Cbb3-type cytochrome c oxidase subunit I
Amino acid sequence: MTGANVQPGVGNEGVNRTSARPVPPLSAHAPPVGLPLRFFGVGLLSVVGLPVGILLRPEVLATYHYNQFVIALTHLTVLGWMGSVVFGALYQLVPVVLGTRLYSGRLAHWHFVCHLVGFAGMVWMFWRWDPKQVGHFGSVLALGVGLCVWNLVRTVLRAPRRTWMSVVVLSSLFWWGAVVTVGLGVAAAKCTYESAARLDPTTPLGALVHALESTATYLRRFDPIALMHAHAHLGLVGAFLILLVGVSYQLVPMFTLGPAPSPRRVLGVWALLNLATAGSFLTILHRSPWKLCFTGIGLVALAGYGWDLAQVLRRRKRPELDFAMRYFLTGLAWLIPLGGLALYLSWPGLVLTARVGQWENVYGLWALTGLFTFCLLGMLYKIVPFLAWYRWYAPWVGLRPVPALHELYRGGWLRTGYGLHMAAVLGWTLGALASHTQWVRAGALLFAAAMMLHAVNLGWVWVRRAEPAERAAGVPEPRWRSAS
């Protein structure tokens, strides 16, 4: 995602307004900009839909119980919002950071189709509570994840250089495969298989149905709540948090002009987080008191990560952080209360009371709408303006004044959305702890306003392009632009 004179999102002032010559094309390694933008658009639509579901069913936060509405809205957030943005960012960043081309744009296109159909169908069927159809749509989603994993693994392996970022990406893809596999197993465990006795296990269909029946029989041995918690932690820590930590090690120094972290320290943090992910999954699943040990390992890793980022920020060359970076760092700050709450909920012998259940609600709320949503929105305000700037304005560098990145979106809207977002999470927290449905609804309205504001603001970045005055005056376009 780098050109000769510009780096992706190097702060809002990092774009040269008056270069001596036109900037060359985005990068030979970057995929078409429409690929990540499709994922980003679906993600923003999904996060706008979340508060609508909570307005319809405020009891998902006001009381502690698992039902189809809780699970539907959780998957809308995790797969529709977070998953869509993460996949779009991976397709954009991995080829550029590793200096190679995406292995297959066609596979990425089909992944988008499978992802959209799969998660939308799953959310719909969870809301209706039809586990059989959840499994069918989940299989479509799993096919898409499989295409993504194959595509990005081949991309990493064909890269001319291998870095710690390669290791981070590969491990995250592994956890994506694991969490989807476990999720399909959970869906299989909630189904019955009357037709298994009538099907020949030597046929493909019979073998599949018998395998699903065996999976369901095995998973029914575990406590359903423990199985759900283990599945959730496998996804949030393995598929999302490890990738977030790795990508921020790469991008925060770039955005702030800070020093690059030590690869040895990055790999140390990465190894501890992977150990904590695997250990937490098994100990949560078996309700083992050793889960506190693995929680501690994860917190040690995050403490090292926080120390590293603090050093980057302290030694940065850019004195003032733009608001998009502050948005991102606010998300990382949620790791502090989340870590304390994780220790409490992992304590051996903790009895599941109504109060403990309310804190579990808050734990999930802070992770999804605090940590990850703040971080993802901060990154979108870096990535989307950069893609739009390169698409519409890069050909005119040196021919006319061009805007800086922060001038492509409305800064006031960004700050207003930030305030509404923070107020919504705090309101939801109070509503969850007090079992107060009106506070939950108020938080949902604030969150809806914040997300709609961000969606319009980021959409405005792409559609607001100005017609260059030089074009109207007959100044020819740069040759590389016309050829494309």
Remarks:
- Residues 354-392 form the longest helix (39 residues).
- The CA atoms of residues 160 and 296 lie 37 Å apart.
- The radius of gyration is 23 Å.
- The mean pLDDT is 85.
